[in-house]
Inverse folding.
């Protein structure tokens, strides 16, 4: 039936490429959370009063966990092109978006405190704050890689980039489980010792969320015939 001489409307057909456009937009949104997280910190005025010093638990955790998270985001972002498993792709997207947002918040606080987002000895804030012995965590900031607990080496990242399909899924889970495990003690220490309540709350949320994700990923890894790497 026509209206005012116009031809009848035809149903809209979603172009085949639109699904990939949607995926691309979601990726942009996830990366945009880095800026949004920092902007939210500024808008709320977090950290404006009596800002932490550069060698404080708050500043050290914000710096080190940002660096730790960014490697996790790097690994998670590989899944979109290298995994065909919907569960792995969804897990990776969740990790990437969550940790990008958290990096934005931590770097936003550092900016408000007038501090650099990098620098200092990795995890030195745990050693100096209350005599914490970093050697008990099996980390050595002065080693060749200078990696914090759980972080993948350059060789491991390169190997992961070269995998696809089920081989990628298994290795991704192995590396991400260890990555989450390595962040646990840092997050728990900051939750208990940070002076800024907002940062302490964020650290506590990280510890709880990543512990739950480790349990989930361990089950996913076993279902795919893989075995976890030694805990850091």
């Amino acid at each position: 039936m026509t209206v005012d001489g116009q031809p009848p409307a035809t149903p809209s057909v979603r172009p085949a490429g639109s699904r990939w456009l949607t995926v691309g937009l979601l990726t942009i949104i996830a990366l945009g959370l880095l800026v949004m997280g920092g902007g939210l910190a500024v808008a709320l005025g977090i950290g404006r009063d009596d800002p932490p010093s550069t060698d404080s638990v708050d500043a050290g955790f914000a710096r080190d966990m940002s660096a730790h998270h960014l490697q996790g985001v790097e690994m998670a972002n590989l899944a979109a092109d290298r995994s065909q498993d919907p569960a792995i792709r969804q897990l990776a997207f969740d990790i990437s978006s969550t940790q990008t947002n958290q990096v934005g918040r931590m770097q936003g606080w550092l900016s408000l405190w007038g501090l650099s987002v990098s620098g200092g000895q990795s995890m030195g804030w745990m050693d100096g704050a209350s005599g914490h012995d970093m050697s008990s965590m099996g980390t050595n900031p002065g080693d060749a890689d200078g990696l914090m607990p759980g972080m993948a080496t350059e060789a491991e990242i390169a190997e992961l980039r070269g995998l696809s399909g089920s081989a990628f899924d298994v290795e991704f889970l192995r590396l991400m489980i260890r990555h989450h495990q390595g962040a646990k003690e840092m997050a728990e220490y900051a939750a208990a010792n940070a002076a800024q309540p907002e940062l302490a709350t964020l650290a506590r949320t990280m510890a709880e969320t990543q512990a739950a994700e480790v349990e989930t990923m361990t089950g996913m890894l076993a279902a795919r015939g893989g075995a976890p790497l030694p805990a850091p």
The chain has eight helices and no strands.
